[in-house]
Design goal:
The protein is of the alpha+beta class and about 80 residues long. The protein has one domain: Ribosomal Protein L24e, Chain: T, CATH 2.30.170.40. Helices cover about 25% and strands about 35% of the residues. The chain has two helices and four strands. The strands form two sheets. It has a two-stranded antiparallel ribbon. Strands 3-4 form a two-stranded antiparallel ribbon. Strand 1 and strand 2 form a beta hairpin. Helix 1 packs across helix 2. The two termini are about 20 Å apart. About 15% of the residues are buried.
């Protein structure tokens, strides 16, 4: 399942609504990417599955600070 390792965001359930107002279930998946990220505090690369929105925030504040917000551990 597409899921962010830090925030835990995953797919959302929604409805396709036809012209005749018939509702059928559809899924909205999050855009999860597997990336190797350099962590200067640890002096090494860390692999993580993150959403693209997570990656934008990691670029701004750093991986350890972002993980601390959500109580996630970086191995």
């Amino acid at each position: 399942m597409a899921r962010s390792e830090i925030t835990g965001k995953r797919r959302l359930r929604g409805n396709n609504v036809s012209h005749s107002n018939i509702k059928t279930i559809r899924w909205q998946n999050v855009n999860v990417q597997k990336r190797r990220l350099w962590v200067p505090e640890l002096g090494r690369f860390v692999s993580a599955r993150l959403t693209t929105r997570d990656l934008r925030t990691v670029d701004k504040i750093g991986l350890l600070a972002y993980a601390k917000r959500f109580g996630a551990r970086i191995n």
